[in-house]
Design a protein that fits this description.
Helices cover 22% and strands 22% of the residues. It is of the alpha+beta class. Strands 1, 2, 3, 4, 5, 6 and 7 form a 7-stranded antiparallel β-sheet that branches. A hairpin with a 5-residue loop joins strand 3 and strand 4.
Length: 169
């Protein structure tokens, strides 16, 4: 995995292609390795999978895949703009297929023209631990939107002492 592959969305596009072309039946059949590569923490510019030292010094050990998040406002599908590889902070922006901003998490409430509460954005999950779940509570949707900036959403265990490498199945 490289910086350029992340910034161009190579792994997310490949996973979506496999689901849309019916090469697999659902998101739960996407290979773990592809899901993990579609997480910003595996990017070499962010330390990558192969950094030295124990995994608990980074994000932690992958505990589970939460699922592929799908955001929508009414009947309009929305996509979280992913954080570019060399950024440390980036605004949370939800766009439609055409790239038009339809929702965001504003820095200041006075500028909250497209806030998740005002627009009424919900999230549902395909595959993973939350497969089939739909969430409409704004604070929870915001939390998942923030995590979606980094690609696929995983939960991590930072306490368990394990070897440096995580075996992919």
């Amino acid at each position: 995995a490289s910086v350029y592959q992340w910034d161009n969305g190579v792994f997310s596009l490949e996973a979506e292609r496999r689901v849309k072309n019916n090469e697999i039946n659902s998101w739960s059949q996407i290979p773990d390795k592809l899901l993990l590569y579609d997480y910003l923490g595996t990017n070499p510019s962010k330390g990558g999978l192969f950094r030295s030292g124990a995994q608990i010094k980074g994000d932690g050990v992958v505990d589970s895949w939460t699922g592929h998040s799908n955001f929508e406002s009414k009947s309009l599908a929305l996509y979280v703009r992913r954080m570019p590889a060399f950024f440390e902070t980036f605004p949370v922006i939800l766009v439609d297929r055409g790239g038009t901003v339809r929702g965001d998490i504003p820095f200041r409430r006075a500028e909250s023209r497209y806030s998740i509460e005002q627009v009424g954005i919900s999230v549902y999950f395909s595959g993973g631990v939350l497969d089939g779940s739909s969430i409409e509570k704004a604070s929870v949707v915001k939390a998942f939107a923030r995590k979606s900036q980094f690609g696929e959403i995983f939960s991590f265990d930072k306490k368990e002492k394990v070897p440096t490498a995580w075996p992919l199945v």
